[in-house]
Write a structure and sequence with these properties.
Blueprint: E1 3-8, H1 11-19, E2 24-27, H2 40-52, E3 59-62, H3 71-82, E4 88-93, H4 98-107, E5 113-118, H5 125-132, E6 138-142, H6 151-154, H7 157-169, E7 173-176, H8 185-191, E8 195-198, H9 213-223
Parallel strand pairs: 1-2, 1-8, 2-3, 3-4, 4-5, 5-6, 6-7, 7-8
Helix pairs in contact: 1-2, 5-7
Bound molecules: glyceraldehyde-3-phosphate.
Length: 233
């Protein structure tokens, strides 16, 4: 079964997502871009609060939307976020020649990094193959432009299948995200990634607004294969 990753920005949101059955709690500031970063003090506080409430689910956090040429800042931010006690540090990977060196540098970090391929212009199979040869625990695809439709609008199904097959063959976990909606669940179930990431689909309004408990519960049920009443748009 595809596990549910939910992106949250605060302690109350993190506890809400955990209570709704999120398998992965992902810490980010959705108002700051696709991989918007939270202050490290906030990340550390959320991790502490989750553990204090007995939530054992893995926690990931993003380093913010940094360009591929900012390798020093990427490294420093991976270290700072990793030191907050998260299980995974997510780093956005923009396609282009510099991305190969960034992946090499991330693989050499002492932190468990999950590269997130920014897939608005499709996935670069050579870049993915490079990441598959490095010791990352998981690889993800996501989109930057959340207004342009979902990941399934940006990347052909055949390319997504190939991505999953490549990552699985390397023994890594594979995750998909990108403005995924409840209507995309059948496509997700057809692909069966190890996990799928959500923010837009579980908010009251756009992804920068508050989490909606009803939408969270409905999505969790759908991913478990349960029938749910349609929610108002
Ligand atoms: O990592 C997952 C993302 O935060 C998903 O956000 P989104 O559903 O708005 O694309």
């Amino acid at each position: 079964m595809t596990r549910m990753l939910v992106s949250v920005r605060s302690v109350p949101e993190a506890l809400l997502a955990a209570g709704a059955g999120a398998d992965f709690i992902d810490l980010k500031e959705p108002g700051e871009g696709a991989l918007g970063g939270l202050p490290v003090a906030t990340i550390a506080a959320i991790v502490r609060a989750l553990r204090a409430h007995g939530v054992a689910s893995p926690v990931s956090a993003t380093i913010g939307d940094l360009p591929m040429h900012a390798l020093q800042r990427i490294r420093a931010q991976v270290e700072a976020v990793g030191a907050c006690g998260v299980d995974y540090v997510k780093v956005g990977i923009e396609r282009g020649p510099q991305a190969f060196a960034v992946l090499d540098a991330l693989a050499a970090c002492d932190r468990p990094v999950v590269p997130v391929f920014v897939a608005d212009r499709g996935l670069d199979a050579a870049l993915v193959a490079h990441a598959c040869g490095l010791p990352f625990p998981a690889l993800m695809a996501d989109t930057a432009d959340k207004q342009a439709g979902s990941l399934f609008d940006a990347v052909p199904m055949a390319q997504l299948r190939h991505f999953l097959a490549q990552v699985r063959a390397a023994g890594q976990l594979v995750g998909l995200a990108g403005a995924l909606r409840t209507g995309d669940v059948p496509l997700l179930q057809a692909l069966a990634p190890d996990f799928a990431g959500f923010r837009s689909a579980v908010c009251v309004g756009d992804r920068a607004t508050a989490l909606c408990p009803q939408r969270l519960a409905a999505l969790a049920a759908l991913l478990r294969g349960q029938a749910v009443e349609p929610l108002a748009a």
